[in-house]
Amino acid sequence: MRAVWAVFKRELALFFRSPIIYVIAFALMLLMGLVFSTIVASYSANNQSQFAQQLVTANNAVGDYMGLFTFLLFIFAPLLTMRLLAEEQREGTLEVLMTLPMNDWAFVIGKFLAVWAVFTFIELLTLIYVVLLTAMGVPTAGMVFSAYFGAWLYGGAVLALALVWSAVSEDQLVAAFLGAATILVLYLASSFSGLIGNTLGAGAADFMREVGLVVHYQARMLSGLLQAHDVIYFVLIMGISLFITTLIVGSRRWRSN
């Protein structure tokens, strides 16, 4: 655990000394702010004074802007992870770090936890929109928790996926592009389930639907429905992706020796 903590602290310090986190946070908040104002304006035009209507309006607004937040992660998650291993490889510092008394798993986990912590910081910034929503109506606590907890797991999953490509490529832009493409494919997988079903049958369609990110987060968690198998889905993506990343890092250590 000390090795994980050491890597975590090092990476977290590097993140907050780099302008990239502030640029990403600003860009995300700007985009979400523009869309949020549009959402609020559209709901306010039809807003009624009844409490039930205000509750539905606030819950729908949370679902809309958090759905946008998770969608945008196909761009921003790879930008956060692209340097973590790709830069180390390009500058030759990965081989130096691999000589330290730590196993590959601790090295990868430390880096992943650091970028997940940065993502958590950015996600918490969006709570300002929950506060602003109280002017229209207070969303239910269960809805807010499900949306934010689900987004936190979603973020961890897509960051872990993008980290695989940072381990594969020495070029940060290539790593970011491949990470974005992978996340986008998983995001759109559920949309193609019908087409797959027409070709390969209902079983293949169900499999494709469950593989996709959307059905687990936007179709369920954003509706306030928090189920164990959706949580397990995101944890599995994280576990498998980090396992693959560890194997790649381990192979580089073996070649350097």
Could you describe the 3D structure shown?
It is globular and about 60 Å long. With 257 residues, it is an all-alpha fold. The two termini are 25 Å apart. It is built from twelve helices and no strands. The model has no long low-confidence stretch (mean pLDDT 84). It has one domain (2-256).
Question: How would you sum up this structure in a few lines?
Answer:
Helix content is 84%, strand content 0%.
Arithmetic mean of pLDDT: 84
Please, how many domains? 1
By DSSP (H or I, 4+ residues per run), the number of helices equals 12
Total count of strands: 0
Coarse shape: globular
Helix/strand-derived category reads mainly alpha
The radius of gyration is 20 Å
What is the H/E string? Answer: HHHHHHHHHHHH
Q: Could you list the spans in which at least 5 consecutive residues all have pLDDT below 50? A: none
Helix content: over 70%
Span of the ends, CA to CA: 25 Å
For the biggest sheet, the summary is: none
Strand content: under 5%
Q: What's the layout of helices and strands?
A:
Blueprint: H1 2-17, H2 19-45, H3 51-91, H4 93-98, H5 104-125, H6 127-133, H7 141-168, H8 172-188, H9 193-200, H10 202-211, H11 213-217, H12 228-256
GO molecular function, one term: ABC-type transporter activity
Keywords: Cell membrane, Membrane, Transmembrane, Transmembrane helix
Membrane topology: Multi-pass membrane protein
